[in-house]
């Protein structure tokens, strides 16, 4: 997951956004997802593999969409388009089902411009996430907010509405997620130095912690990064959980 947002929870409620399901049978939706994964920096090659889980109701990938009635939406969209000119075309809300439930598009917003995406999944390939809808545990996956619109509270709002959806629509008791561990990004981390990654102002792990998530497990080699010399760096991850009840 990729996050870079305000360190503080919004004091007047979450930023006004909508979550609209990703349509795995729409080439326009698939192409846009690939563009956003390129901007995110990883997993673009996995987008086609997300289609079947989305159809089966195992993955709940949603677009993050600005509220069309918010006064700052036009200027924010202009900033997004300037940074990502390949995303100027609107998408149609064509998804038929999401997480096994029928989806009915809002007739007032038949088309939209996504500025990010977030998944609320009922099945994941990581056993330690304990993802199981029957046990009341869903997992946040594949999280991205436009690089031009970070630090505006949009990431926190997407998290808020995913948590609300999980609890109210699916009866979930908890949400889990995986993110890069603090140990892999601290200033003296050999992996960070070799990969020439900047020192984050706020780490992903700390950002999630500030939104109520607690670390319960760590994986020593969640994935492998390869530096410019070809050397492999097994990367540590942290698994976090938030109780919804």
TrEMBL record:
Pfam families linked to this entry: Acetyltransf_1
Molecular function in Gene Ontology: acyltransferase activity, transferring groups other than amino-acyl groups
Annotated N-acetyltransferase domain residues: 114-182
Disordered, as annotated region: 1-24
InterPro entries: Acyl_CoA_acyltransferase (IPR016181), GNAT_dom (IPR000182)
Family annotation (CDD domains): NAT_SF
Protein name: N-acetyltransferase domain-containing protein
Native source organism of the sequence: Xylaria multiplex
């Amino acid at each position: 997951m990729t996050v870079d947002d305000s360190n503080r929870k919004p004091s007047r409620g979450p930023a006004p956004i909508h979550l609209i399901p990703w349509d795995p049978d729409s080439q326009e939706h698939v192409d846009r997802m690939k563009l956003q994964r390129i901007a995110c920096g990883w997993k673009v090659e996995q987008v086609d593999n997300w289609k079947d889980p989305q159809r089966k109701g195992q993955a709940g990938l949603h677009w993050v969409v600005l509220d069309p009635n918010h006064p700052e939406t036009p200027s924010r969209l202009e900033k997004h388009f300037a940074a990502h000119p390949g995303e100027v075309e609107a998408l149609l809300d064509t998804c038929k089902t999401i997480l096994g439930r029928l989806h009915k598009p809002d007739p007032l917003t038949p088309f939209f411009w996504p500025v990010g995406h977030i998944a609320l999944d009922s099945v994941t390939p990581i056993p330690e996430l304990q993802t199981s809808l029957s046990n009341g545990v869903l997992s946040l996956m594949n999280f991205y907010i436009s690089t031009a619109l970070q630090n505006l509270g949009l990431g926190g709002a997407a998290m808020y509405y995913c948590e609300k959806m999980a609890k109210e629509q699916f009866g979930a008791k908890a949400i889990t997620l995986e993110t890069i561990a603090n140990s892999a990004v601290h200033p003296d981390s050999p992996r960070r130095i070799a990969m020439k990654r900047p020192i984050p102002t706020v780490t992903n792990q700390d950002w999630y912690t500030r939104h109520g998530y607690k670390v319960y497990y760590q994986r020593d080699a969640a994935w492998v990064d390869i530096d410019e010399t070809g050397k492999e760096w097994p990367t540590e991850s942290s698994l976090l959980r938030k109780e919804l009840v």
